[in-house]
Fold each of these.
Amino acid sequence: MGSSSLSSFTDSYCVIGDLSWTLPGMHDPHSDCGKMLESGAENRCNRLICSECFSRVLKKQAYRIYKRITKSTLDNSDFRHIIFSPPQDWAIERIKTECGFKYFRRRATEIIKQAGIESAVLFFHPWRLTERLKSLFEEYFEAESEDKNIWKDLVIERTIEFSEISIRISPHIHILGTGFLKRADIFEERTSWVYRNLGDLKYSLKNRIRYNLNHVGLALDGGGGSIFNSYTYIGDLKRRGAEYEEE
Ligand SMILES: [Zn+2]
């Protein structure tokens, strides 16, 4: 199969195999989203894909993750922001079906543990920004643009269109986590995965959570929801997590 038939974009999702992948806030709201209830509160569907409700859902989910990490017994100053990239052909095959993606996530969890990560929150990103978009941005602002600002414009502000001009399929996983990382070259030789350590995050845990969550990959379930969780945990954050989220 040629790469041209790999995927097809609409303005709000991208079909890859059997699955339709999208980003937060790209989907139509329900007719009553944002409407005032008798109680005076606004009606919210609590779906991350809803264009009317997603920013609240993002905040809520980001806060839950933040709370889980900061209330855990783990030392927050040990946390690192790391990107794990799988062999691309293998990964793209896996994200075409529900079953395949479940396997991808299980495998990713094993691999990330093999790298030495003991506890972490994981975010799946199906896309990277295209070089073309990045260079357009740099031209326009006459300065080196940060990816995080571009994603914000694409997802939150919607000033950049969701299309193959802006993004390209390139599955990878961001983690915020802790452990003793194995050497990158040895890890790559053994697993064929690559990691890039973006460093510690003691002054910006909240921002890193929001950044990773705001362009997380979501697969549509056909009924107006998404099939998979927008993030997952490993290690102590998974085992004892629910305790940390209690008030
Ligand atoms: Zn909604």
Amino acid sequence: MGADVAVGGASNSSVPIRRSPTYYEIPAPPELDWRPYRSPFYAEYRREWDRRGSEGDPGEAPLHLDLDLTSRCNLRCLMCPRTWFLERGETSWAPGGPGDMDPGLFRETASEGARLGARSVKMNFLGEPLLHPHVVELVAYAASLGLWVMMNTNAVLLSPALSRDLLEAGLTDVFFSFDSPYREEYERIRRGASYDRTLSNIRAFMEAKEALGLRYVQTRASMVLPEDPAGRGRAEVDYVRLFRDLGVAEVGFGLPTVMGRDYAPLNGGLDFVCPDLFRRVFVFHDGVAGPCCGDWERRLVVGDARKSSVSEIWKSPAYERLRSRHLAGAFAEVPACLCCSVPYLSTAGGDGGGSRGGAGRHAAGRRP
Ligand code: SF4
Ligand code: SF4
């Protein structure tokens, strides 16, 4: 965790800035803080999230599910790993081509996860969740299970009617991926998106949230900072101002990720245990399951939700072996982990916010 300072003078002094070498977040000012409106179980869930990561305790089941509603996307953002892979004809992240998760698979996985003790679900991983034709119905289903329902979105398809439907369905945490406070820069990076239309969608979402009185709904906007450090300070201030004016609670900034960089030489000899192995499971749209958002190449498959239960995946020999190697101080013996940015970035002075492509993709750090 970093120092409690603010960009643009807007900060909640009771909540420290989340900071890692590649990402940091300005917390909500008191008038936009959503935490006081959550049930006490939320604080307990966050404590358990931290405890599992720091103690290397997987418990009996995942605390959080990442269920990829779709691996399709309506944009081709410059800094996104998805774009990077597509442009190289690399398809290991979606072997049969990008597609949507079967609603039945989503329901079964979410319902078993909730029954076992999961507290939250994120509705995306490799694509834009609003493209899924049943997104509202699936949000409602997950909310009916008592899960906190989270989503990253580029907000391009977030019409006023859809905003209202999602909020009424029970969406609790929305993370807008919106790069740059400046029209020209935004449209250069977010290829295929209109600055004015997307901003108007976010405004309508915030108005719907206000009209419905949903103070517990968390909102965050995040951007990848310009590659030239000289332009960052002004962009940060303008970005915070833009989203605070819209009533968005939190604002996050990621450094540009260098796709294709080999972290193996930097990771050698580090003392590192990946915290995600003890709290979450990622299910690709086709049911294949992995331990983290960094493994686009599917080298760390730990199961398949079409063939195995959540419990079986969580306790699978593949997942147990991966945890054991990390706990034994041998993460570097796992080729995918040896090449990953997370060990280096999270032991080089940060708190683990540098997922491989995390800053580039959605600038959302590694918190769900
Ligand atoms: S950053 Fe998000 S919106 Fe942009 S191409 Fe990647 S997945 Fe799609
Ligand atoms: S690839 Fe990276 S994020 Fe994934 S388990 Fe290994 S170290 Fe953790």
